[in-house]
Amino acid sequence: MLVIAALLLGALIGGLRARKRGGNRMDIAQYATVYAIAFGLIALFASIIISR
């Protein structure tokens, strides 16, 4: 559950950051994807640490 929430939050933050910088649709999609992956990985490791 934590990972899914982090993916969505990362995509939202990445999309907003790209839009703020004046990016087109492809830039927004790329930023959203990269931020979602980064936030998801961080949440995955955090959930592994929490579960141990």
Describe this structure in words.
By secondary structure, this protein is mostly helical. The chain has one domain. Helix content is 88%, strand content 0%. It has two helices and no strands. Helix 1 runs antiparallel to helix 2. Keywords: Membrane, Transmembrane, Transmembrane helix.
Give a short summary of the structure.
With 52 residues, the chain is an all-alpha fold.
List keywords for this structure.
52 residues; mainly alpha; 2 helices; elongated; membrane
Task: Furnish the topology, listing elements before pairings.
Layout: H1 2-20, H2 25-51
Helix pairs in contact: 1-2
Organism: Aliiroseovarius sediminilitoris
Protein name: PEP-CTERM protein-sorting domain-containing protein
Transmembrane segments: 28-50
Q: What is the strand tally? A: 0
- Structural class, by secondary structure, is mainly alpha
Count of distinct structural domains? 1
Give the SSE string.
HH
Helix content: over 70%
Query: N- to C-terminal separation?
Result: 16 Å
Range of strand content? under 5%
* Unreliable runs: none
Rounded to an integer in angstroms, the radius of gyration calculated over CA atoms is: 12 Å
Q: Which overall shape is indicated by the principal axes computed on the Cα atoms?
A: elongated
The average pLDDT is 96
Tally of individual helices: 2
